């Protein structure tokens, strides 16, 4: 019964879209019959030219070209988004009220003294740790290509640090605290365990899974945008879908002129469209910078939410994360790291110069693993590699924030153009 009702709803929506298209076609045919066919063609060409001019103008709205205008549009877009958020919260007053009551109960439990505080502290630590990695995962994939590559900056180095520490300490029973904020070898004299890849994988499984779940959540905005546009009867001429439209046009008109990247994007689109769940799972299970197209495709073809999100979650948080963990752990195993450092020293002319900071960095890392909490290690602040990595992180985070400002400013310009077309 549910499927019959659901199919009836879909048929009603399709009927409405067809009726809307028939009305447009009838209007265009009546204009053609009255001898105004040339005017229709001219208006279509004028509309295309206007949209092209709008797109070029929107591309120039960046901080390094027009900073005042970009910042103004960013503030206005943020105000609009806050207004829309407040409006949605007001429309869902009961849900908001329940969330407020639930939060007040949790706050009371958190502040009241008692025997439960030990459990509360443990739960708080786990929740904050998971939320940290979920947030980094969302930042890594949200924003249709403007994401921060948090695996290279945070999760990858964390797994590498745990790997190096496991082989140095011959154990993964790092004392808590300070782990996970700081890794120190356990004071278990005479107790050494056999370290394998699976031991280290189990140690970092929670944070890796949470990061993968965050990347899956970050893929939802393109899906919801495309789904909303399809249900509202929008065509593929919107800016969010222009890339797919251009790819399909190139495929039909000039299939031999397509580049390797364009063919790869089109392959992702076709795979998801034809195979469904397993196509999404395959695209999500491998490091794939083109997965935004998969989300847009799934939304446009009205693939059910749980089919898309379930396949994305399994692919990114389980399959792909295990592949990435195995790669990082294999690369940073103790004998592999020493082999790489020795190979760097064999490079002609500059080998010894390049080898020195790597050796010093490894020495300091091993030294830090054996010091007691609260004590400083000698030479901790003077390592060149640590300084370079810190500056790279700062630059990438700054670029990410700038890209978010530019993107929001361009979205406000797009909003202005749509409003102007509706008023004409």
UniProtKB/TrEMBL annotation:
Biased segments, Polar residues type: 27-44
Domain of life, per lineage: Eukaryota
Signal peptide from the UniProt entry: none
Segments passing through the bilayer: 95-112, 132-155, 271-287, 293-314, 326-345, 384-405
Keyword Transmembrane set for record: yes
Keywords annotated in UniProt: Membrane, Transmembrane, Transmembrane helix
Sequence segments annotated as region (Disordered): 26-52
Name of the protein in question: Vacuole membrane protein 1
Native source organism of the sequence: Dreissena polymorpha
């Amino acid at each position: 019964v549910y499927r019959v009702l659901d199919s009836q709803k879909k048929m009603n929506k399709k009927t409405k879209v067809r009726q809307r298209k028939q009305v447009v076609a009838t209007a265009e045919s009546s204009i053609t019959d009255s001898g105004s066919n040339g005017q229709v063609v001219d208006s279509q060409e004028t509309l295309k030219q206007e949209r092209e001019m709008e797109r070029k103008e929107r591309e120039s709205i960046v901080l390094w070209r027009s900073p005042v205008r970009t910042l103004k549009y960013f503030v206005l877009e943020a105000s609009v988004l806050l207004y829309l958020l407040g409006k949605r919260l007001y429309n869902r007053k009961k849900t908001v009220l329940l969330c407020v009551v639930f939060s007040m109960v949790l706050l009371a439990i958190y502040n009241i003294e008692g025997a439960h505080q030990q459990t509360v502290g443990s739960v708080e630590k786990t929740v904050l740790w998971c939320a940290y990695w979920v947030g980094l995962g969302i930042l890594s994939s949200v924003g249709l290509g403007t994401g921060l590559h948090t695996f290279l900056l945070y999760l990858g180095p964390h797994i590498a640090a745990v790997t190096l520490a496991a082989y140095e300490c011959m154990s993964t029973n790092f004392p808590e605290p300070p782990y996970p904020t700081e890794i120190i070898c356990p004071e278990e004299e005479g107790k050494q365990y056999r370290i394998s890849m699976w031991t280290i994988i189990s140690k970092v499984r929670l944070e890796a899974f949470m990061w993968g779940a965050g990347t899956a959540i970050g893929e939802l905005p393109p899906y919801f945008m495309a789904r909303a546009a399809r249900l509202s009867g929008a065509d593929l001429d919107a800016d969010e879908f222009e890339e797919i439209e251009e790819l399909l046009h190139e495929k039909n008109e000039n299939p031999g002129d397509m580049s390797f990247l364009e063919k790869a994007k089109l392959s992702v689109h076709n795979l998801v469209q034809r195979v469904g769940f397993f196509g999404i799972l395959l695209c999500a299970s491998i490091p794939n910078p083109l997965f935004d197209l998969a989300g847009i495709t799934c939304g446009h073809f009205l693939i059910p939410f749980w089919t898309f999100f379930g396949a994305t979650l399994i692919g990114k948080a389980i399959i792909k994360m295990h592949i990435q963990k195995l790669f990082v752990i294999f690369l940073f195993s103790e004998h592999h790291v020493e082999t790489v450092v020795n190979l760097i020293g064999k490079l002609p002319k500059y080998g010894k110069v390049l080898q020195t900071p790597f050796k010093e960095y490894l020495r300091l890392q091993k030294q830090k693993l054996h010091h007691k909490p609260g004590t400083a290690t000698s030479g901790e602040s003077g390592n060149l590699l640590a300084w370079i990595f810190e500056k790279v992180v700062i630059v990438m985070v700054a670029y990410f924030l700038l890209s978010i400002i530019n993107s929001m400013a361009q979205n406000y310009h797009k909003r202005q153009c749509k409003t102007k077309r509706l008023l004409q």
